[in-house]
Write a structure and sequence with these properties.
Helix content: under 10%
Mean pLDDT: 77
Radius of gyration: 62 Å
Largest sheet: 5 strands, mixed
Strand order of the largest sheet: 19-18-16-88-91
Distance between the termini: 28 Å
Shape: elongated
Structural class: mainly beta
Low-confidence stretches: 1-43, 127-132, 267-279, 297-301, 477-495, 682-687, 749-759, 1012-1026, 1593-1630, 1672-1695
Number of helices: 11
């Protein structure tokens, strides 16, 4: 499919021809290859094959190894043959030496990475390097580097395989980007200058400046000047053609005769001094020596200066307008300027050689910072004089490492902490909690703090402990013990810790200064209710002496308290009683009543079944009760068939009182009821009638005819007896609290001091008071209480170890600051040191000393450090030698301009001599050592200096004067008396010192007074863990102006610099909740339920107070606590009274029997251990269990069988099925008459699930909320849940039902939990105020910060947002030295040439804002400032300049530096730095001199913060014209020349209407917009060019299997749909692949499909024609990885 050649012909034709050429070439190549293989000799079909090299083998590591490979002979068709078939001379070797790599070689060898080479364009490395290239943003390139394996020790090269064994070889190439050439960009032209001549022919100029220099091969800058001739008008007179030109001054030189004269004069002075040396006495000699020294300094004979006054000359020539020199006589006669003047012979700075390097600042080994610095210096031999070269730096430094053996390691520093303080809960309390006056007993979560300090890491605490222990052991024999202390108990160790150092030495995060802690909450003792009173028993059954005993009642501990059961209330109470017994018979039950004399009914007895029990009710051996009479048989009666039948007695009720007194007696009651009435009696007449009728001989005995035993009256149906007859005198033992743990003298373990205070050191003992107490009375003698349950009064305890105070040593003394007053005297200062307590004493340990910080005065240095320059007197004014200037007209020998010098020396602030280098380092700029001077001539007027101004009598209205006077002969000269020329007095108004103060800037933050916290509203201090609050002050700066609106010191306005105003920092108020409500009733009366209590919102938080826990739907806070509760199912029971008398409904007149009704009263009662006690509401009892209050039944008639009431139903066996039954039974109380039957005494009913048979299972409740101790705020708590026994119908029942079934309990009932502690945000103290942000001006601020020491947790107060505060600095005027503008170039009285321009150095004041204007003030106000302009100490008040002569072409002054421009690629996020430029344009005055103009100049410099600009073409149509104006504009709106993309082809773009402004477009010869090569036109609906879209790229892989080698083929841009295009010859047809919408047309897809089929066909033919025999698969596989990397650029800028 072609190689993508481009030419003038059509694209499709060329590509088709290229395809045929390729096909023919390949076929010919294949034929040639076949012919070659056939015509070669026979050996050519065999060749040697080699396998890959094997692993390097050998016994030793290093170069002694060997490796081998397989070598065989192969046929070209791929099969292996004998070795003899191949040429033995060409056989490859199968073995070679190699380097055997071992693991330890990794430390010896490494890759050496070379530097990246210059970025080479990809196009330069490809076959198509000559194709045209259009740069868009930047050109992709490739960088290469050399990578090799080296031996680390000497850097020698090694085999790459060694390094590849450990690490892959680093890449050798990388992509890079070459910026596009940046053309020079210049600004627009300035307006035209005026004509250079007022008459005749002149020039007008306009100039432009360089904005961006040419970069990366861009086009050079165009001409910066444009010239235009001008003719203001014809000249009326002769035009000035000549002018005087002054040349530059020649270099300074010495007169020839000056040196000889100077030497002769010095020799004469020296001899005279030597001759007079011995004349004077010692005092006179000392005075002379001082004078000599002073004179020598004044004569400038210092070794640092060699000042020689010479002379310099200059030429004055007459110049024609065309620039040629002519005779001076042609120039108009005038006073010639000076051609000779005095000067200082330039001397360059001379320095000594460098001294040896000083010691390295790093004297120890520090792995983190191993490098130090060392310096060396040199001294000045000769200071620069005149225009000599300045001195280079006198000191230089370099990095260094400590040298030598035995270099100690550097001290490392680490954070240490003091002991944690005691855990405190009150710091977690809210404001609401703090109102509680009693804060004792708080427990649970708390907070503890500690101090953090920095120490040297190698000073460990254990080292101090060991050292001090050894020291104490060694000193035991010398230390004298106190006699009052036992020697064995006075052994203490003084424990110290590392010395604290400055915190800034410690790196890394600072450990926490606070942490949460836990104070275990004491567990209160819980006891069960009192049990019933026991029998009267002896106090000791083994000793039964006496007849007095005690009745006891007991209770148990249900919840073990903290500290054991000894902290519980008494568990036993006793009352005295008479006739005690230790054992008693206990009635178990009574047998059935057996009638006497074996009768079927009538009176009888019941035998009692008994057992022997002790006083605790436990069954014991019956023999123990033999001494006590056994219970007698109980009389009873079996009713006969006609007798009244009574029920059994109920159980005795609970005793109404627990004890008895004279007014109170305990009673018990039991009842029974009538079950059947007796039969009635017959009369005697009826009996007689029966006898007659029956014919009986005697009256028969018919018992049934007589009435049975009568029913008793109602009073007999109830029995009452006394109970608890013992007196109400209850005694018990009462215990006091345990005393402190004291040493037990019997213990042998010593209570030695322990550093950590953990663990017991010895056993001690505790005692408590035990007394006998009578309830409601008080203490009684101990014999009143039984001895058996008496608590112990002594118990062992563990003594804690003593803890001595542990302190750090004192830190080093702080450095003494050297502070000097303006007079140069040192100010007194102090230094301090401190130490920290890291363990407080406890348990009687050694106390801490009171002094933790010490302070002392610093030694005042004798000399305050500082250096200053001292200037000496000016020497005599030296003139140019007369023989050099005598030819100048008007010159006089003894007067005229000259030069004078002076000496400068370096002094300390106290005036003592110092080395000059000290002033160079620390002093201000060196004063001038030369100045111009004038020796007055005789005709000159001489005046003395001005006097000082006279004092002012009044401001603003007075005047002040100063005067001077003529001196010498000037007093007599008339011209000197001209006061206009030589004024003798000056008058000025007195300064009007009016000052105006006004505030400036914003108010500062509200700042609390320093020193102490402010009390909050609640009367307590808001703790340091929360921001302070209360009244503070805010500040606003005051500024003071004088009458000229110049800034002055605020003291002038009698102001201290501030306005202050009271302000309030509101105190934080926490969320306030109500107290806990009472617990609700348990939600279930039987089983497990829940109970709830809550809190309500009373006050919302504000000002950063503690937040409320949560908000509900009505925006109210309500906090709930839910805990499970267990209700005893027997807590409330139904109590039924005895049944009432039967009410028979169908009363038989003969007998009281038949169907009837019985009623009884049923009440719900509170059940206690002593039985039901009081009535409660019926809803508290289970309605299902409620007994019947009425029953209908049949009252048995006489002679009927009478049964007792049914017993309880038996329990159904599980599982519940109807095949199982439950049973209840009754027994016969009265047997029936013969012939009558008793009903069944057993009642059965089937077991039905959830009717009378139930399954039972456990139900677990939900977890409660986390429960804390009542005195805890947070911390560890417990969550509980309960088991509930649930019946199969869903009803909760007593837990005993489940327990009886032995159901599995697999649940955990309690788990620990944590209530997050409300830790308030803890802040550090405010730092010290920072230095002012500005040394002067209106906007200076001081800041102080604080940091978060502990972030808030839980519901603690959040951290405030204000972590820094500011306040304004006092306003100070900003004084600075400032240059005045340069004066015009001065060439004395001459028209042109080399001259000098001047500027002054003045003191200005400003407000420092940068916007305000500076005002000129007296220089005295700047006297304290360093003489420098914007940091530049080189003060330059004059410079050479050139005043162009008429007609001369010259360079303008440098333009201002352009704005900083970034050299970048817009949108690619690539920056190549920033640059700014300035330029000098050429100005011409004469058309004839244009050939003599100098070259224009520009210079650039790097800068920072440059802006990245884009450049675009813009156009507009002129008024009354059809042509458009096109210009280039920068993205900031500036019109420029250069920078915009070049128009291709270079056709006038203005010929297209509208102009072609789309990227990649141009205007062709037919005035139609088209797209450049590689882009296609996308037209708008109106037929105009909308955009230029890139034509897709087809990537064609090349032959040879190199997948990475990709060539790029881009289609040639289609043309307009015309047969012949103007300007494009050779194109005869046109195909447009894109439609108007920018999408590919359908025919393109068809052509692509056809081309693809053709390509498949051609490839198949080539394959069949050139097919070769297969070679073995393994052939040369190892060489794949050795192919060179080939990169190709695919047009993507991401490369």
């Amino acid at each position: 499919m072609g190689l993508g050649w481009r030419g003038a012909a059509g694209t499709l034709r060329i590509r088709t021809e290229g395809s045929w050429y390729l096909l023919v070439t390949l076929l010919l190549f294949c034929g040639f290859w076949e012919t070659h293989t056939q015509t070669d000799d026979g050996k050519s079909v065999y060749f040697w094959e080699t396998g890959p090299w094997g692993r390097c083998m050998g016994s030793d590591c290093g170069p002694g190894g060997s490796q081998s490979r397989a070598v065989w002979c192969a046929h070209v068709e791929g099969w292996t043959t004998l070795h003899t078939n191949c040429d033995q001379g060409q056989r490859p070797s199968n073995q070679r030496n190699c380097f055997r790599v071992c693991d330890w070689h990794k430390d010896l060898y490494d890759w050496q990475l070379g530097a990246w080479n210059v970025c080479v364009p990809v196009s330069a490395r490809t076959l198509w390097a000559s194709r045209p290239f259009t740069c868009s943003g930047g050109e992709e390139g490739i960088q290469t580097r050399v990578v090799g394996c080296i031996l680390k020790s000497d850097g020698s090269q090694a085999e790459d395989a060694i390094c590849e064994y450990f690490e892959p070889k680093p890449r050798l190439e990388q992509a890079c980007l070459i910026p596009c050439p940046q053309d020079c960009v210049v600004s627009e032209y300035s307006p035209w200058t005026s004509c250079s001549k007022t008459c005749g022919t002149g020039l007008r100029n306009r100039v432009r400046s360089v904005l961006v220099p040419p970069l990366f091969g861009g086009s050079v800058c165009p001409n910066l000047t444009e010239f235009q001739s001008c003719k203001p008008g014809p000249c009326t007179g002769p035009e000035g053609m000549y002018s005087l030109r002054v040349g530059p001054w020649s270099p300074c030189a010495l007169p020839q005769t000056r040196t000889a004269r100077q030497v002769k004069r010095r020799k004469g002075k020296g001899q005279g001094l030597r001759e007079r040396a011995g004349v004077k006495d010692p005092e006179t000699r000392e005075l002379i020596q001082k004078k000599r020294t002073r004179n020598r300094l004044n004569r400038q004979e210092s070794p640092f200066w060699d000042i020689q006054v010479g002379y310099q000359t200059r030429d004055v020539t007459c110049i024609h307008r065309n620039g040629s020199a002519v005779g001076r006589n042609l120039c108009a006669p005038r006073d010639l300027p000076l051609t000779v003047q005095s000067c200082v012979l330039p001397k360059e700075c001379q320095l000594t050689d460098w001294a040896v390097w000083g010691p390295c600042s790093k004297t120890c080994i520090d792995p983190e910072s191993p490098v130090g610095k060392r310096t060396r210096s040199r001294k000045v031999v000769q200071f620069p004089v005149g225009e000599g070269a300045d001195c280079t730096p006198l000191e230089e430094s370099e990095m260094c490492e400590p040298q030598g053996e035995g270099v100690p390691p550097c001290a490392t520093y680490t954070w240490r902490s003091t002991e944690w303080s005691d855990c405190r809960v009150d710091t977690l309390l809210s404001q609401q909690d703090r109102r509680r006056s009693n804060l004792t007993g708080l427990c649970g979560g708390g907070l503890q703090t500690r101090e953090i300090y920095c120490v040297q890491a190698n000073a460990e605490l254990l080292k101090y402990l060991n050292d001090l222990k050894e020291k104490d052991k060694a000193g035991q024999t010398q230390r004298q013990q106190k006699p009052s202390v036992p020697p064995l108990l006075s052994i203490t160790f003084q424990i110290t810790a590392s010395r604290p150092v400055e915190n800034k030495l410690c790196k890394g995060p600072i450990p926490n200064r606070s942490q949460l802690c836990q104070i275990p909450c004491p567990i209160d003792c819980e006891v069960s209710p009192w049990g019933a009173w026991g029998p009267c028993t002896f106090e000791n059954c083994d000793d039964q002496a006496g007849k007095k005993g005690f009745k006891l009642r007991k209770r148990q501990v249900t919840n073990e308290p903290t500290g054991g059961p000894g902290n519980c209330p008494h568990l036993v109470e006793a009352v005295p009683c008479d006739e005690p017994t230790c054992y008693n018979w206990q009635l178990v039950n009574l047998d059935q009543c057996v009638p006497d004399d074996e009768k079927p009914c009538g009176p009888g007895t019941q035998l009692a079944q008994v057992q022997c029990v002790n006083s605790n009710g436990e069954e014991v051996d019956r023999n123990l009760c033999t001494s006590y009479p056994a219970p007698e048989p109980v009389p009873c009666e079996v009713p006969c068939s006609r007798d009244c039948v009574l029920s059994d007695w109920t159980a005795w009720s609970t005793c109404s009182q627990t004890c008895s007194s004279k007014t109170i007696e305990g009673k018990q009651m039991r009842t029974r009821s009538i079950l059947a009435y007796n039969a009635g009696e017959v009369t005697a007449m009826v009996v007689a009638w029966i006898t007659v009728m029956e014919g009986l001989s005697q009256v028969p005995q018919f018992p049934e005819l007589f009435g049975g035993a009568l029913c008793p009256n109602s009073s007999v149906l109830q029995e009452i007896r006394n109970c608890n007859e013992h007196a109400c005198t209850v005694y018990h033992w009462q215990t006091g609290p345990w005393g402190p743990c004291t040493e037990d003298p019997s213990a042998s373990t010593l209570n030695t001091s322990s550093g950590d205070g953990q663990g017991p050191c010895s056993m001690g003992m505790q005692t408590r008071k035990v007394i006998c107490v009578r309830v409601n009375v008080g203490q009684v003698p101990p014999k009143k209480c039984p001895d058996g349950p008496r608590p112990s009064t002594v118990r062992p305890c563990q003594l804690p170890c003593k803890k001595d105070c542990i302190m750090t040593p004192f830190s080093n003394w702080t450095a003494c600051p050297v502070i000097c007053d303006p007079a140069g005297n040192a100010v007194k200062s102090k230094q301090s040191r401190k130490r920290l307590i890291i363990q407080l004493p406890s348990n009687g340990g050694q106390d801490c000393p009171e002094v933790l910080e010490e302070e002392r005065d610093c030694e005042i240095p004798k000399i305050c450090p500082g250096f200053r320059w001292k200037t000496h007197k000016w020497r005599k004014c030296q003139l140019v030698p007369w023989f050099l200037r005598k030819e100048h007209p008007g010159a006089q020998e003894t007067c005229g301009p000259g030069l004078q010098t002076r000496a400068v020396s370096c002094r300390q602030l106290d005036g003592t001599q110092a080395d000059v280098s000290e002033c160079l380092k620390f002093g201000k700029a060196m004063p001038a050592i030369t100045q111009r001077c004038q020796l007055p001539c005789q005709d000159d007027c001489q005046l003395n200096n001005w006097s000082k101004f006279s004092s002012c009598t009044a401001d603003c209205v007075g005047v002040r004067t100063r005067k001077r006077a003529l001196i010498g002969r000037s007093k007599k000269k008339d011209k000197c008396k001209n006061t206009q020329m030589y004024p003798l007095s000056e008058t000025q108004y007195c300064p009007c010192d009016k000052y105006n103060a006004q505030p400036v800037g914003n108010w500062s933050d509200c700042i609390l007074p320093e020193g102490g916290r402010v009390e909050s509203i609640l009367g307590m201090k808001v703790q340091g863990d929360i921001k302070e609050c209360g009244q503070g002050y805010r500040y606003q700066a005051m500024v003071c102006y004088d009458q000229d609106n110049r800034l002055v010191e605020t003291l002038r306005c009698n102001s201290h610099g501030y306005i202050e105003e009271a302000c309030i920092i509101p105190c934080p108020s926490d969320c306030k909740l109500s107290e806990w409500s009472n617990w609700s009733r348990c939600s279930k009366s039987c089983g497990s339920g829940v109970k709830v209590r809550s809190k309500w919102l009373r006050e919302k938080p504000y000002n950063g107070g503690r937040p409320c826990p949560k908000l509900d739907h009505i925006n109210q806070v309500q906090v709930y606590e839910v805990v499970p509760c267990q209700s005893d199912c027997n807590q409330y029971v139904w109590v039924a009274e005895p049944w009432s008398v039967w009410k028979v409904s169908n009363v038989d007149l003969k007998e009281n029997c038949g169907e009837g009704v019985q009623t009884r009263k049923v009440r719900c009662m509170l059940n206690t251990i002593d039985g039901p006690s009081e009535s409660v509401e019926d809803y508290l009892c289970d309605p299902e269990e409620m007994p019947l209050g009425a029953r209908e039944s049949r009252l048995p008639c006489p002679e009927d069988c009478v049964l007792n009431d049914w017993g309880p139903w038996s329990r159904c066996s599980l599982p519940c099925t109807r095949t199982n039954n439950r049973v209840r039974t009754a027994y016969t109380l009265r047997s029936p008459t013969v012939g009558r039957q008793c009903p069944d005494t057993t009642d059965r009913e089937p077991c039905s699930l959830n009717l009378n048979c139930f399954n039972y299972f456990y139900n677990i409740t939900d977890w409660s909320t986390c429960q804390l101790s009542p005195n805890a705020v947070c911390g560890s708590g417990i969550k509980t849940r309960m088991l509930d026994c649930v019946r199969s119908d869903g009803k909760s029942v007593d837990i005993k039902f489940c327990e009886e079934l032995n159901l599995e309990k697999r649940w955990q009932m309690n788990i620990s939990c944590v209530v997050e502690c409300p830790v308030n945000c803890q802040l550090s103290e405010w730092s010290a105020w920072s230095d002012c942000s500005q040394t002067c001006g209106l906007e200076g601020k001081m800041w102080r910060q604080r940091s978060v020491v502990q972030a808030s947790q839980g519901d603690g107060r959040p951290c405030p947002s204000q972590m820094e505060q500011w306040k304004p600095c006092p306003v100070r005027p900003c004084y600075r030295w400032k240059y005045s503008p340069w004066s015009e170039c001065r060439v004395e009285s001459v028209v042109c040439g080399h001259g000098i321009r001047y500027r002054n150095l003045s003191c200005f004041v400003s407000d420092g804002s940068g916007n305000g204007e500076s005002s000129l003030v007296d220089e005295e106000l700047c006297s304290s400032l360093e003489l420098a302009i914007d940091g530049d100490k080189q003060i330059n008040l004059k410079e050479a300049c050139t005043l162009p002569c008429p007609g001369e072409c010259y360079l303008m002054e440098w333009s201002d530096w352009s704005s900083c421009v970034s050299v970048c690629i817009k949108g690619a996020d690539m920056d190549f730095g920033s640059v700014q430029v300035r330029s000098r344009a050429v100005l011409a005055q004469e058309p004839e001199n244009l050939q003599l103009c100098p070259d224009q100049a520009w210079e650039s410099q790097p800068c920072t913060g440059g802006e990245c600009y884009e450049y675009k073409w813009f156009s507009s149509v002129r008024l009354n014209s059809t042509r458009s104006t096109i210009w280039c504009q920068r993205s900031d709106g500036l019109n420029v020349t250069g920078g915009c993309p070049a128009m291709n082809p270079s056709v006038d773009n203005s010929s297209c209407d509208p102009p072609c402004l789309m990227p990649k477009s141009f205007c062709n010869e037919a005035s139609i917009c088209m797209c450049e090569e590689g882009f296609t036109e996308v037209l708008s609906p109106t037929g105009q060019l909308d955009q230029c879209a890139p034509i897709p790229i087809l990537e064609i892989p090349t032959a040879g299997g190199k997948k990475g080698d990709v060539k790029t083929s881009r289609a040639i841009n289609p043309t307009l749909p015309t047969t012949i295009q103007p300007g494009r010859t050779g194109r005869t047809w046109y195909l447009q692949p894109y439609g108007p919408d920018g999408k590919l047309k359908m025919w393109v897809y068809g052509v692509a499909a056809g081309a693809f089929v053709l390509l498949i066909f051609i490839v198949s033919m080539i394959y069949l024609a050139c097919k070769k025999p297969k070679r073995p698969q393994r052939q040369r596989q190892q060489n794949n990885r050795l192919k060179p990397l080939t990169l190709a650029y695919d047009g993507d800028t991401d490369m």
